[in-house]
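Write out the 3D structure for:
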Amino acid sequence: MNLGLDTSSSGLAGAPPAQRVPRAGWRDPRLWVGAALVAVSVVAGARLLAASDDTVRVWAAGDDLAAGAPVTAADLEQHRVRFADGDDVGGYFRATEPPDGVLLRGVGAGELVPRSAVGAADQNGTVQVPLAVDPEQVPPSVGTGSVVDVYLLGGPVDGARDADAEPVLAGVSVVDAPAVEDSFVASGKRQLVLAVPEDDAHRFFGLVGAADSPTLTVVRRS
């Protein structure tokens, strides 16, 4: 039965044919623009990361270092530090320029070595004084970099009482402290080398020379 429908005039007959979107070829300028943007982003990111690492390698004491001691590379270690003010790094030794001289003051383990703490030997104003001390008169913890007082017992010639004695050397730094077996094996004494102001050294030797039977006792401060 013919219902009178005309299929030739339906909406489907008039629809345009589907078209495929062409793929971008290597000659398409949009491809090159995208690649350039990616490359720029990578370079900018790398530079940003590099700029964010504003730390500087500087020298620090590997152990406690005493005033008057020469500074050598063996005594130091490199630390990477970020300074809040970039100009502050000028007060310290960069890893590219190790210190050369002697310490004008003690520097603790891990402490950055400031330029103001290093100078020529004639700037230090101290002399190195060797002591031979009975091991029981020295705390076992005394070592290079320790700060000590030295007491003279035995009574000076004038008969002053030891109980009233004050240290003959106060707050001096230990420059070297060999173990007993590395010091004076025959005498059994332990050697200490102290950095002592020159005037104090003269006074010290005068007091020791005036004592009847001098005995030195070392007290550690730090």
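The helical segments are 29-52, 121-124, 198-210.
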